[in-house]
Specification:
The chain is an alpha/beta fold. About 35% of the residues lie in helices and about 25% in strands. The protein has eight helices and seven strands; from the N terminus they run H-H-H-E-H-E-H-E-E-H-E-H-H-E-E. The protein has a seven-stranded mixed sheet, sandwiched between helices. Strand 2, helix 5 and strand 3 form a beta-alpha-beta unit. It is globular and about 40 Å long.
Length: about 210
């Protein structure tokens, strides 16, 4: 069953990427983009920023318009095309590449910060954690928005909670995430950002200062 769910999610990011925005809005009561922007409170203003798995490009455009020097990568060709169009429509110059987080096409210490919102299981892969640490500068920051918890008690919110659990989208406990990141050499902290309908989880992982 989990293999079938994984296959369905892969199709959601590729073949059916054109449905992503509508589905994401529906399963978040319209807060999906707001949840992603929760990462911005934890990003340094100085230095170059890498967005990993930029998806359809909403956060990427917001970052560019806010003045961040940001480069984005995504492995999905469909998401890459969507993000490219969105950046052009915002009258910005696309700085996007098709690449895997497991093998980043950048030199050592190229970025002050990396950010990823709602990544899939690749985020805990040892290769990902090693590659991100490699391209970050000393005392660099890796900011991740893994999920959000609904705070409402109404019936519809309850149904959405059940749907998240049924599709394997259960929350990763902070101690489990901490173990992954600390084993890869990061310092780990979990934060919560409130929205009208949810508590957005934000992980901030720091590389050593030297």
């Amino acid at each position: 069953m989990r293999g079938l769910i994984r296959f369905a999610f892969d199709q959601f990011y590729t073949t059916f990427a054109w449905t992503y925005d509508a589905v994401a809005a529906a399963v978040s009561f319209g807060e999906w983009q707001q949840w992603g922007r929760a990462a911005m409170s934890f990003l340094p203003r100085a230095g170059r920023l890498l967005e990993i798995a930029h998806g359809p490009g909403h956060l990427h455009v917001t970052l560019r318009q806010a003045g961040y020097d940001v480069v984005g990568i995504d492995l999905s060709p469909q998401m890459s095309r969507m993000a490219h169009r969105r950046v052009l429509q915002a009258e910005e110059v696309p700085l996007l590449a098709r690449a895997s987080a497991l093998r980043l096409p950048f030199g050592d210490r190229s970025f002050a910060c990396a950010v990823s919102t709602f990544p899939t299981g690749f985020i805990f892969a040892p290769e990902t954690l090693a590659e991100v640490r490699r391209v970050l500068q000393p005392a660099g920051r890796f900011v991740i928005v893994p999920m959000a918890r609904f705070t409402g008690r109404d019936a519809l919110t309850g149904l959405l909670r059940l749907a998240y659990r049924a599709t394997g989208q259960a929350e990763t406990p902070a101690d489990v995430a901490r173990a992954h990141f600390e084993a890869a050499g990061y310092a780990f902290a979990q934060h919560v950002v409130l929205t009208p309908r949810a508590e957005v989880i934000v992980w901030v992982c720091l590389t050593p200062a030297a």
